[in-house]
UniProtKB/TrEMBL annotation:
InterPro entries cross-referenced by the UniProt entry: Actin, ATPase_NBD
UniProt similarity note: Belongs to the actin family.
Region (Disordered): 1-42
Protein name: KLLA0E03213p
One Pfam family recorded for the sequence: Actin
Length: 788
C-alpha cells in the first residue's frame, strides 16, 4: 500500500515510500513503464524561487539607475483621518446602484412635481384639478391616486397660418392667427398683382386640369352644359357692386389705427397695412427666418413669446403669465423637424416663460392619437404652405416614409383667385397680395370649392368687399358673380402641382443676417448638418423618373424595392469633411443649396401617397405585409383638407396611378419568393457580396434580373383570379371621428397624449435642460431625436 502524506508535515521532509508493485497502464490500456511522475521535484522548485528573487533584485537595480524607485519618507507624518481602503473582493460583491426609484433623477422629479401639485395648483383650472395628494413611490399604497395625479397641460401646435393653443381640459383649441402687427411709418407695401392671362405655361397646365376634369365628368356620366364658362363670364362682366350700409353689414371690421403698441393674433388682422408692418414668426413648422421685416433672431423669439402669452391670456382661456409655472406644455413638432427650432422652443418655454415641464410629440403620431387609431396608418396633413405625408406603425412615425411637399391650401387659394380673374370677376382691381385681398380670397375659397361632381354647374354666389381706406359709410360693397368649373379645377391643382410653381409670388431674398444668428444644427463630431431627413424624400427629388407610379415594368418596381437602403442618407455627405475655413464655407454653401432642393419637392398628391406607403412597407420588413393595413387606414387632416368629396376623388386617383404589381394583396408572397430565389442563387455561386469587378458585376445583375423576371411571370400565370376584388388591395380613407374638424385633430391628439401616464417619463424640466441640454432629448422623447 501507498503511504498517506500528513498535511502538517514540512514539505522539505520526504515521506517514506514503498515501491509500487502494480503495473503502470498507458492510455491504450497496455502496460507502460515510461509514464513520468506529475510531481515537480523539490530541487527544481527551489531553483525557480531563487531565480525569481535574483530577477527582482536586477529589476530594482535598473529602477534605481533610472531614478524611479520607490522610497519611503519616514519623516512625513501619516494623516490620521485617512484610512487605507480595502480592496473589493471581485468574486463576490453587489451594489444597489439604480435599483431604487429614488436613485433615478426623473423619478425624484416626478415625485417633486406631484408634491408641487398638492401645494401649488392652478387657480384657473376646473375640477380636473391639479391639487392631488402626493404619492409615496416606495409603497404606492393608493392606486387611485395614480389616475388622479394629473397636472394640467398647455398644448401648442404652431402652424404657418394659425397657432392652435389651449389647455388639455378644453374640448377645442383656440386658433390664433400667426401674425404680428408692428407700428411703423412706412407700413407694409404689397407687391402688385401679377397678370398671368398671357402666360402660355399657365394656360397649358390649366388646359390639362380642365381636360382631366371633363374626362372625370364623362366617366361618371355627368352632363356638362355647353358654353357654361362663357355664360358665367358674360354675367360677371355686367355685374355691378351694391352699396351696403354699415348698419346692415354684420361682418363689418373695426380697423385698428392706434400705432402706440404692437398687436398679436386676431388683433393684428384688423390693423391697417399702411400703418403697420405685418410679419409671421412661424413658417413650415419652423421659424420664419426669411421674413424681411425681422432685424434679428431675438425679434422672432420675442414675437413667439408674446403670441403665446397673449393667446393664453384671452378671455376664453384666462391663464396669466404668473400661472405658467403650474402648467406643463406639450409641443407638437413636425415629423421632419428642425432641431434648432425644437431646442429654441424648449429654451423659450422652460427658461423664458417658466413652464413647469415640456414634452414633445410628432404631428402624425398626434393625429393618430386624436383619431383614436391604433393600427398602422398613413397620415396626410394638408396645411397652408406644405402638404406632409408620413406612415405610423406601432406608435412610431416611420421616418424614412415621410414626405414634405411644397404646396398647400394657400396655393389653392392663389390658383382659385387667378381663375376668377380670368373669368371676368367683377372685382377687377383685386390684389391678393394685400392682406385684405388675401382674406377675401380665403373666404371665397372656403365658400365655393368642392370635389363633389353633382355640384358642378353654373351657380350664383355673392360676397362683400370691405375697403378700409374708403370713406365712412361707403366701405362695404356687395358683388354677385357666377362660377362653373373653377370650383373643382382649382383644388385639382394638388394633383397637378406644376401649376402652383407658375403662380407662386416672387420670394424675398433670404434674410442672411437673421439666418446667421440661427445656424442649422450640426453634429458635434463631424460638423455635418444632422436635421432629420427622409429616404423617400431624397429619392423622390433625385430620381423623379423612378417614382413607382412612373414605372411601367414590374421588374423595375421589384428592383427598386430590393435596392432601398437607408445608408444612402449617411453616404450623401461622406465627401464633405471638416477642413479649412474655406472648405467649411464651401460645404455650407453646398448644404444650403441641397436644403433648398430638399424642401422644394413638388409631386402629385396621389403619387406621393403611393411612394410613402410602399417604402414604409418595405422598410418595415415582413415582405410588404403592411401594405394592406396602410392602404386601409389613410387619415387626412389639416385646415386645407376641408374640401367636400376629397376622399372620393383621392381614392380614384390612387387606383388610377398605383401600379398593378403594388395593387395585389399577395405581393408579400411574391416578394418572399423573390428573396428566396436571390438567396439560393447567391448560395449556389458562393457570393456573399456583389462582385467588385465591373464585368462580373454586370453579369451578376443581368443574371439576377432574369431570375426575378422569370419569377414574376410565373407568379402572374399562377394568379387566375387577378381581376376579382379579393385580390386587390382596398383603399379606405378614414373620416375624422365624431365629425371633428380635421384642422384640430392633431391638437386633440396632443391633448390625449398629455393625459396618459407615460408622459411622466417624457417631461423635460428646467433642471434637465440646464444640466444636460439637448442630450436629454435622447432619453425623454417618444421618438428618436438623434440619428445613429
Amino acid at each position: 500500500m501507498d503511504t498517506e502524506i500528513d498535511p502538517t508535515e514540512s514539505p522539505s521532509k520526504e515521506p517514506s515510500k514503498e515501491p509500487s508493485k502494480e503495473p503502470l497502464l498507458g492510455s491504450d490500456g497496455k502496460i507502460s513503464k515510461d509514464i513520468p511522475s506529475k510531481k515537480v521535484p523539490q530541487h527544481l522548485l527551489e531553483k525557480r524561487r531563487l531565480g525569481r528573487i535574483k530577477a527582482a533584485e536586477e529589476f530594482a537595480k535598473k529602477l534605481k539607475i533610472i531614478g524611479i524607485e520607490r522610497q519611503e519618507n519616514e519623516h512625513i507624518a501619516q494623516p490620521i483621518t485617512l484610512k487605507p481602503v480595502s480592496v473589493i473582493n471581485q468574486k463576490n460583491y453587489s451594489s444597489n446602484y439604480l435599483k431604487n426609484d429614488d436613485q433615478i433623477f426623473y423619478m425624484r422629479e416626478r415625485k417633486h412635481l406631484r408634491q408641487q401639485g398638492q401645494t401649488g395648483g392652478s387657480s384657473s383650472a376646473p375640477a380636473a384639478g391639479i391639487g392631488t395628494p402626493a404619492l409615496d413611490d416606495d409603497n404606492m399604497a393608493d392606486s387611485n391616486a395614480i389616475e388622479d395625479d394629473e397636472l394640467d397641460s398647455i398644448i401648442i401646435h404652431p402652424g404657418s397660418s394659425f397657432i392652435k393653443i389651449g389647455p388639455n381640459y378644453d374640448i377645442f383649441p383656440q386658433q390664433v392667427p400667426n401674425l404680428v402687427a408692428v407700428p411703423t411709418h412706412g407700413g407694409t407695401v404689397p407687391s402688385p398683382q401679377e397678370d398671368i392671362s398671357n402666360n402660355e405655361i399657365f394656360q397649358q397646365l390649366k388646359d390639362d386640369i380642365q381636360f382631366d376634369f371633363k374626362e372625370r365628368m364623362r366617366y361618371y356620366k355627368r352632363r356638362i352644359m355647353p358654353n357654361s364658362t362663357e355664360q358665367a363670364a358674360a354675367f360677371n362682366a355686367k355685374s355691378d357692386p351694391e352699396l351696403v350700409p354699415d348698419l346692415n353689414d354684420f361682418g363689418r371690421i373695426e380697423w385698428i389705427k392706434d400705432r402706440s403698441k404692437s398687436y398679436y393674433g386676431h388683433d393684428a388682422t384688423q390693423c391697417l397695412p399702411s400703418d403697420f408692418k405685418l410679419r409671421s414668426p412661424f413658417l413650415n413648422g419652423s421659424f420664419n427666418l426669411n421674413e424681411p421685416n425681422y432685424n434679428s433672431f431675438q425679434e422672432i423669439l420675442f414675437d413667439v413669446e408674446q403670441l403665446i402669452v397673449q393667446s393664453l391670456a384671452m378671455e376664453k382661456i384666462g391663464i396669466e403669465r404668473n400661472q405658467f409655472s403650474n402648467y406643463r406644455v406639450v409641443l407638437i413638432v413636425p415629423d421632419l423637424f428642425d432641431k434648432t427650432f425644437v431646442e429654441s422652443m424648449i429654451h423659450l418655454l422652460l427658461i423664458e416663460l417658466d413652464f413647469q415641464s415640456i414634452a414633445l410629440i410628432q404631428e402624425s403620431l398626434a393625429s393618430c392619437y386624436g383619431a383614436g387609431l391604433s393600427n398602422s396608418t398613413c397620415v396626410i396633413d394638408i396645411g397652408a404652405k406644405q402638404t406632409k405625408i408620413a406612415c405610423v406603425d406601432d406608435g412610431v412615425v416611420v421616418k424614412n416614409s415621410a414626405l414634405r411637399l411644397n404646396y398647400g391650401g394657400d396655393d389653392i387659394t392663389r390658383l382659385f383667385a387667378h381663375m376668377l380673374l380670368q373669368n371676368k370677376f367683377p372685382y377687377a382691381d383685386w390684389n391678393i397680395n394685400e392682406p385684405n385681398g388675401w382674406t377675401l380670397a380665403e373666404t371665397l375659397k372656403k365658400q365655393c370649392i368642392t370635389f363633389q361632381d353633382a355640384d358642378i354647374a353654373i351657380q350664383l354666389y355673392s360676397f362683400i368687399k370691405r375697403d378700409p381706406y374708403a370713406r365712412k359709410y361707403t366701405q362695404s360693397h356687395k358683388y354677385e358673380y357666377k362660377l362653373f368649373d373653377e370650383v373643382m379645377c382649382a383644388p385639382m391643382g394638388i394633383f397637378f402641382p406644376d401649376i402652383f410653381e407658375v403662380i407662386k409670388p416672387k420670394q424675398h431674398k433670404p434674410n442672411e443676417y437673421v439666418i446667421r444668428q440661427c445656424p442649422r444644427s450640426k453634429d458635434i463630431y463631424t460638423l455635418k448638418p444632422n436635421d432629420t431627413k427622409s429616404l423617400t424624400q431624397m429619392l423622390c427629388i433625385q430620381e423623379p423618373t423612378k417614382w413607382y407610379s412612373n414605372l411601367s415594368r414590374d421588374i423595375d418596381i421589384v428592383q427598386k424595392l430590393l435596392n432601398l437602403d437607408t445608408d444612402d442618407l449617411d453616404e450623401q455627405n461622406d465627401d464633405e469633411s471638416a477642413g479649412s475655413k474655406e472648405e467649411t464655407q464651401i460645404n455650407d454653401e453646398i448644404e444650403d443649396i441641397n436644403l433648398r432642393q430638399y424642401n422644394n419637392l413638388s409631386m402629385p398628391l396621389e403619387k406621393a401617397i403611393i411612394e410613402s406607403i410602399t417604402n414604409a412597407s418595405m422598410l418595415l420588413g415582413d415582405n410588404m405585409s403592411k401594405l394592406n393595413v396602410l392602404y386601409s387606414n389613410i387619415l387626412i387632416v389639416g385646415g386645407s383638407s376641408k374640401i367636400p368629396a376629397l376622399d372620393f376623388i383621392l381614392t380614384d386617383r390612387i387606383n388610377i396611378w398605383r401600379p398593378k404589381l403594388l395593387s395585389i394583396s399577395a405581393l408579400s408572397t411574391l416578394m418572399e419568393k423573390i428573396g428566396e430565389v436571390i438567396k439560393s442563387y447567391e448560395t449556389d455561386n458562393k457570393l456573399d457580396l456583389e462582385p467588385t469587378d465591373p464585368q462580373a458585376a454586370i453579369a451578376y445583375k443581368k443574371k439576377l434580373s432574369k431570375l426575378i423576371k422569370a419569377e414574376i411571370e410565373a407568379y402572374w400565370d399562377s394568379l387566375q383570379t387577378l381581376h376579382s376584388d379579393d385580390d386587390l388591395l382596398p383603399i379606405n380613407i378614414l373620416p375624422p371621428p365624431h365629425d371633428m374638424d380635421p384642422s384640430m385633430l392633431t391638437w386633440k391628439g396632443g391633448s390625449v397624449f398629455s393625459k396618459i401616464k407615460l408622459l411622466e417619463e417624457l417631461n423635460i424640466t428646467k433642471q434637465d435642460w440646464n444640466m444636460l441640454g439637448n442630450r436629454i432629448l435622447q432619453y425623454k422623447c417618444i421618438f428618436e431625436y438623434f440619428d445613429h
